[in-house]
Each structure stands twice: as structure tokens, then as C-alpha cells.
Amino acid sequence: MSTNWFILLTSYFVVWWTVLFMVLPWSVQRDDNPVIGHDRGAPKQHRIGQKFLQTSLLAAVIWGVLFILAHYGAWDKLMEWISDGQL
Questions:
Q1: Is the Cα torsion angle 33, 34, 35, 36 positive or negative in sign?
Q2: Least-confidence region, from 6-15, 32-41, 44-53
Q3: Rounded Cα distance, 73 and 42, in Å
Q4: Which has the higher per-residue pLDDT, 65 or 77?
Q5: DSSP classification of residue 85
Q6: By the 8 A CB rule, do 61 and 23 touch?
Q7: Which of 8, 53, 57, 75 is a plausible cystine mate for 69, CB 3.0–4.6 Å?
Q8: Residue 78 gets which letter from DSSP?
Q9: Is the separation of the CB atoms in 29 and 46 below 8 Å?
Q10: DSSP H/E element including 80
Q11: Rounded to the nearest 10 degrees, what angle do helices 74-83 and 48-71 cross at?
């Protein structure tokens, strides 16, 4: 089996981007007294660096599971099982 690095990187990027939208609302606290001109829904501290790190770690785990499923053929069997109406 040859490894197509472009497919691996783009699939990781898609998983990472999807996980980012899941991680963004974690531990967000609104500012009860915002400065005039600031959005009332804006968080006190965005902690974007921490969220990028959390996203990268969680995306790596999810991508790793998907990679293992695909590498050992379990993904194909799962899709076959679903298409046969077994779900």
C-alpha cells in the first residue's frame, strides 16, 4: 500500500477544522460589563492559543482512529455493513 501524503494531510486538515468549531465554545465566559463599543457576546478571554492546542490534539486522536480504520480495511467493512441496511 502506497501512502499518498497529500490525502493524509488534507484529511487531517478537514478533521482539524471541524474539531476547531467544536472546541471554540469550550470554557467561554461572557463579559458582564463590556467596554462601550465591544460586542456583549464577546468572551472575557478568548484563549485562542489554548483552543488551537486542544484542537490539534483532539484532531490528531480522531484522525488517527480514522486512519487505522481505513488502513486495516475496517472502514470499508463498516460502509458495506451500512449500505446493506444492517444499521
A1: negative
A2: 32-41
A3: 45
A4: 65
A5: T
A6: no
A7: 75
A8: H
A9: no
A10: helix 74-83
A11: 80
